[in-house]
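[step 3/7] fold_predict: job queued, chain A
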Amino acid sequence: MATLLDSLVAPFDALAHRESGGLGPARREALQSALRDGLPGPRTESWKYTSLRPLERRAFGTPASPAAFDPAQVLALPAPRMVFVNGRFDAGLSDLSSLPEGVVAEPLSQVLERGDERECNLLARRFERGDEVFARLNAALAVDGLVLRADAGTRGTRPVHLVSVGTADAGDVAWHLRHLVELREGACLEVVEHLWGACAHANLCNQLAHVHLAPRSRLVHARLQEEAPAATVIARTDAALAREAEYRRLDLELGGGLSRHELNIALHGEGAAAHANGVLLASGRRHLDTRLGLDHAGPATRCELTWRGLGAGRGRAAFHGGILIRAGADGTEAALSNKNLLLSANAEIDTQPVLEIHADEVKAAHGATVGQLDPTALFYLRSRGVPAHEARAMLTAAFCRETLSVFDDGPLRDLLAARLDAALAREAVA
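[step 4/7] structure written:
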């Protein structure tokens, strides 16, 4: 796969702010490590369900001027907004005037350009090369993204809207975004992350987010992936929770041609809690791969994970949910549920829940199923005069909407529910 990897690393020498913040050595080390190990292949265990062969003959370039798009097509929220187009901050589309007091949001490119010693020292610790090749490529090549900090005790009254738009007027292009989110002690905030695209070319977005939650902080984080059918999305989120911190997360994987997302949550502090839900909509020829890694390191930590998958057309979904309860994490409670529906004979869903326990006095459970719509429920609705396609739509929507319980009732939940319903209707799944 030399052609693909070579095209991805080609922009390194001309990278803006490559040496800023003392990151030059770390970037070069990450680049050399990626070149040495190469991209994952058929023998890479963690990539066994996802092949990069469809991309290996492509040569991705660097985004130039973005094509025009209608901003109204992106999720509209009455909230402060930071927009990245083809991996670059767009000040004209962004609006941070209504940021809550105590919250600072700025593009990574500006932080690097400013070169503040304290900020760059913090950034350097966040630019680990990573244990996976796309994380290393991100460490080497990312020069933009969101840097978000909430001071101790901050109470955000409205969400921060993070938008990544993929649009290019010619050729296949790739970009790398790195987001850093830090909530200090007792801070509470909502972040809505939206990936959207409408480009016929095979764009590649490689995105990595670091989330750090101090004691007793609380982050509600929604991620809506609606990339274009030809797009490839490689995304990873690493979250670290201190004592009594809470992380509530929703992932809606509704777009893209090939999308792989890793969500790693480390529960370091006593009493830390994570509640994460998600939907995988693998329709058409879409390929979705989600990997969860929950690491219970502190005592009395809790996690509850609920994922729903739909396979339609010739779509394929892969789900791996791993929960590790380390020695000393006594009193931990962990639960994982992954249910999937096959809505066509040509769709495929692979699921692999893994539970590893090294502590005493824990409560842990996991379960995974792959099946079809309940014929009894379908018969009941049909007997009440509901047409067949409407009955299927009702059952499919109810199956997916269960994941929205991670959020309280309100405008944000309503908006995400509407986006989910629209995707089900658009993909002719429901």
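[step 5/7] annotate
The CA atoms of residues 87 and 175 lie 5 Å apart.
The chain has one domain: 2-39+78-373.
exit 0
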